[in-house]
Design goal:
Blueprint (H helix, E strand, L loop, with lengths): L2 E6 L6 H11 L3 E5 L1 H4 L2 H9 L6 E5 L1 H6 L1 H5 L5 E5 L2 H9 L7 E4 L9 E4 L2 E3 L1 H11 L3 E4 L8 E2 L7
Parallel strand pairs: 1-4, 1-5, 2-3, 2-4, 5-8
Antiparallel strand pairs: 6-7, 8-9
Helix pairs in contact: 6-7
Length: 159
């Protein structure tokens, strides 16, 4: 079944994703695209434990995700693909994985070089450029929870 959610959120698996998005979309499988977590079995166990028994997760590096994208999308059940940063999602977009897809930007918090765009979203100029590049392949918008107002890419400029 096609992915129901593509999301950039530095917290990856947490309450908004599991309860807000997961329950609303009936998510059963999460693909977490993260180089560090893909290399650490014990960290994967910790992160996956937040999902409980209702859902499972697979932790993959970006290139393997791109290589296996069709297979991952063909899995039975409803799934989500999560990255912790804009650069990783951009890499997937540039591999052709996101053509015609909608990408949701969730929690990216205050940090060096970032400016506040929304209460839950702080972006640097480079991150905004990543989002624009992703947007050339599909649609990018920000929304922390499914019931919130969707904010289009054009309104996310951190100037």
């Amino acid at each position: 079944m096609p992915f129901k959610l593509f999301r950039i959120d530095e917290r990856l698996i947490h309450g908004q994703v599991i309860v807000g998005w997961g329950n609303r979309l009936g998510l059963q499988f999460y693909v977490i695209v993260d180089e560090v977590l893909a290399a650490s079995d014990w960290e994967q166990e910790i992160w996956a434990s937040a999902l409980g028994r209702e859902a499972t997760a697979e932790f993959l590096p970006a290139l393997e995700t791109a290589r296996r994208f069709a297979e991952l999308e063909a899995r039975p059940g409803r799934s989500a693909l999560l990255t912790r940063d804009t650069a990783t999602m951009r890499a997937l977009a540039e591999c052709g994985c996101l053509d015609g897809r909608a990408v949701n930007v969730g929690g990216l918090h205050d940090g060096p070089g970032r400016r506040k765009v929304l209460d839950y979203l702080h972006l640097s100029r480079d991150e905004f450029e990543d989002l624009k590049a992703i947007g050339r392949h599909g649609v990018v918008s920000a929304r922390d929870v499914p019931t919130a107002r969707e904010v289009p890419l054009r309104d996310l400029d951190p100037r």
